[in-house]
Amino acid sequence: MKKPIKILALTVFAAGALFTACSSPEKKVENAKEGVEDAKEDLSDAKQDLAKAKQDSIEDYNKAKAEWTERLTKNDDRIAEYRKDMAAMNDKAAKAKAQKRADELDRKNKEMKKKLDESKNDSNWSEFKREFNHDMDELGTAIGDLFKDNKK
Asked: How far apart are CA 64 and CA 44, in angstroms?
């Protein structure tokens, strides 16, 4: 009596498992279609986000480049102004030292222009921006110090 009950239970279990596995292929297909649609929607959103990020990056790059170009032009003007002030110096040693310093800062300003012209809006943009801002600040401070040293 135990053997027929076991066989019956095993048969019912197997039939139930088979029925469950095979009973809803349409449902499985429908679920798969929904998953594909969700994935397509996510991909579309990601593409839009990427396009916006690229546009924001380009705008940030162009804005920063314009600001830096303006600052470099102002540096040129300040160095030229300093050279005019140097012409009035009587002490030859001080004048030679000032000339050397002006030449050095002019060279550095030209290097910064070249570096800016060669820059690109790429994956290293944020690092380049940080470093270039730092270098521009140092150059601006050094040029400002020219006038302070000259008035002492």
From this structure: 30
CA atoms within 13 A on the CB side of 92: 0
Extract the tokens encoding 112: 């910064």
Average pLDDT rounded to a whole number, residues 9-25? 61
- Would 33 be classed as within a structural domain? no
Q: Determine the pLDDT at residue 71.
A: 94
Give the range of the structural domain holding residue 85, as residue numbers without chain letter.
39-151
Burial class, 75, CB count within 10 angstroms (exposed 0-12 / middle 13-18 / buried 19+): buried
DSSP element (H, E) containing 148: helix 125-151
Is residue 112 very low, low, confident or very high in pLDDT (cuts 50, 70, 90)? Answer: very high
pTM of the model: 0.65
Token pair for residue 90?
């009587």
In a domain, 119, yes or no: yes
CB atoms within 10 A of CB 109: 23
Q: What is the rounded distance in angstroms from the CA atom of residue 126 to the CA atom of residue 138?
A: 19
